[in-house]
Every structure is written in structure tokens, then in C-alpha cells.
């Protein structure tokens, strides 16, 4: 196995709602709101949205689609300027998300906040001057 | 917001178990099994593991750490050869994962299967000759 994640797929309960949420945040896709799956271009891994019940069905007939409040997974969006943290949180709220943790100092030395998308998936928006990024904004380890 | 996911963090219930699982699958990290967080190098988005309770706490004190069987999120690992699908599934099983869907034809024209990691997070392993990849193996949309 090569160390690569090609696609992250979020199972969504209202496809058009999620489509508009992510396109309003600036994610680009060739899909239409009436399609059944949308692949969003990102630098690196592709983000996809797909109906939750169909995603569960694709894995196995035994997968329950009941979700708890916390999926156990977070997606992080790191920004280049400290002020961008709050700006992105507000943008997410205006697009139909919810600010779960307002912009604040993080215990690990950075500055961050969290928003949830319409299905309750959590995105961390973070600024950390000790991280290095490549020309595409991806984290360099 | 730029269309970028910097980090995917999986909240894990046994850090050392997950550390060994992902390092056995070939994911590289500078972290030690006794650390509190591990960032794995990938082409594009970084994969991280972090204790589930601490991840929930980092989002908000209101987040319950009870997880259902399905997080609602899948991670896809696309391979370049059809035979690699089964090979990766077997590798994941040998590293302590579970094959949830054996390698088979997919309804969308490709060939795929699923494994779950020690915390039940689902990875799709897929081959599709209609997808294009860049030199790092990332999907080109």
C-alpha cells in the first residue's frame, strides 16, 4: 500500500444542501446539484459528497446508517494568516454551517476554531506558524 | 476558503494499536508509538491519529465520544493495477484490519473492496481505468 488517500467521501443526508454548502465555501466541481455524487477539486486529496444511505450500502449491507453526533473524524483546513481562521469560520456559518468552537488560542501553540457542516462533520480551521506548506498549501512533514 | 483539506484526523481508542496498523500498511511518520499524536506523510493531505476522547474535547466539551458503527465518512485509496485491490485488502487484514467487502466489480464500472481499520473506519481500495492521476498518485479532476 502506498501512503496515499485519494478521496474523502462524506455521506450526506441532503445532497443539494451539502452541494450548496461546499460550493459556497469555494470548492469547485463539475457536478450539478441534481447529480448523485459530487467530486470537489482540492490540492491533494479529493473531497466527495454522496448520499449517506448509498455510501453505507456501498460498503456492506450490514452497515447501519445511524450516526452519532461525532463521527470520530475531523478534517483540518490550515490557513496562512491568523486572521483567516475567523474569516473562514464566518464564511462557513454564512454558507449554512455552525461555528462549534470560535477562533481561539490552541493548547499546542497555534490558533484555531471548528465549524460543523450541514451533516455535523467537523472541520478544524487552524493557523500554526511552525508548520511548513508546499506551493499547493499542503502540509510538509 | 481555499479548496484544501490539510489533515484528516482519526480519533482512535488504542493509539499504539492504530500506530502499528498504519505503519505496517506503509504510512511513514516521525512520531513514536508512545507519542500522543502521529502525523503520517501522504501525497497531498496528511493523515493523523489522535485519541478519540481528546479529539472530541478539542472540538467542544459538548461532543459525545460515543460512536456508531458507521462514521459516515470513507477514505479511498485508489491503485494503479486491478490486482492491487486484493493485495491491499489482504495487507490491511494482516496488519490487524478487517476485510468488509472483498475485491469485486463495482456498479460504477471499476473494481473495489473495503477494509475497516482497528477503530472501524472504512477505507475503500479501488481501481478505475477512467480516472487520471498526477505523478503523486492523486486524482486529477
Give the gist of this structure:
2 copies of one chain form a homodimer. Chain A is built from 3 helices and 9 strands, in the order E-H-E-E-H-E-H-E-E-E-E-E. Chain A has helices at residues 15-24, 52-59, 83-94, and strands at 7-12, 38-40, 46-51, 73-78, 98-105, 111-116, 122-127, 132-133, 139-140.
Label the overall shape of chain A: globular
The number of distinct β-strands of chain A equals: 9
Q: Tell me which CATH architecture of the largest domain in chain A applies here.
A: Roll
- Broad CATH class of the largest domain in chain A: Alpha Beta
* Low-pLDDT regions of chain A: none
Approximately what portion of the residues of chain A adopt beta-strand conformation?
25-35%
- The count of domains of chain A is 2
* Greatest interface by residues involved: A-B, 65 and 64 residues
N-to-C series of helices and strands of chain A: EHEEHEHEEEEE
Instruction: Give the distance, in angstroms, between the N- and C-terminal Cα atoms of chain A.
Output: 19 Å
Biggest β-sheet description of chain A:
4 strands, mixed
- Looking at how many chains there are and whether they match, the oligomeric state comes to homodimer
Q: Determine the CATH superfamily of the largest domain in chain A.
A: 2,3-Dihydroxybiphenyl 1,2-Dioxygenase, domain 1
Please give the share of residues in helix of chain A. Answer: 10-25%
Model description:
Chain A is α/β, with parallel strands linked by helices. Chain A has two domains: 1-60, Roll (2,3-Dihydroxybiphenyl 1,2-Dioxygenase, domain 1), CATH 3.10.180; 74-136, 2,3-Dihydroxybiphenyl 1,2-Dioxygenase, domain 1 (Roll). In chain A, 21% of the residues lie in helices and 32% in strands. The first copy, chain A, has three helices and nine strands; from the N terminus they run βαββαβαβββββ. In chain A, the strands form three sheets. A four-stranded mixed β-sheet of chain A has the order 4-7-6-5, with helices on one face. In chain A, a hairpin with a 5-residue loop joins strand 8 and strand 9. The two termini of chain A are 19 Å apart. The model of chain A has no long low-confidence stretch (mean pLDDT 89). The interface between A and B is large, with 65 and 64 residues.
Amino acid at each position: 500500500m502506498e501512503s496515499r488517500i485519494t478521496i474523502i467521501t462524506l455521506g450526506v443526508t441532503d445532497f443539494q444542501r451539502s452541494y450548496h454548502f461546499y460550493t459556497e465555501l469555494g470548492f469547485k466541481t463539475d457536478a450539478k446539484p441534481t447529480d448523485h455524487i459530487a467530486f470537489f477539486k482540492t490540492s491533494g486529496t479529493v473531497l466527495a459528497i454522496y448520499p449517506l444511505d448509498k455510501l453505507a450500502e456501498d460498503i456492506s449491507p450490514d452497515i447501519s446508517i445511524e450516526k452519532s453526533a461525532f463521527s470520530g473524524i475531523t478534517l483540518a483546513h490550515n490557513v496562512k494568516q491568523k486572521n483567516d481562521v475567523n474569516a473562514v469560520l464566518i464564511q462557513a456559518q454564512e454558507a449554512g454551517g455552525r461555528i462549534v468552537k470560535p477562533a481561539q488560542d490552541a493548547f499546542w501553540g497555534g490558533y484555531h476554531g471548528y465549524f460543523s457542516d450541514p451533516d455535523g462533520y467537523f472541520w478544524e480551521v487552524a493557523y500554526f506558524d511552525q508548520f511548513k506548506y508546499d506551493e499547493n498549501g499542503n502540509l510538509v512533514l
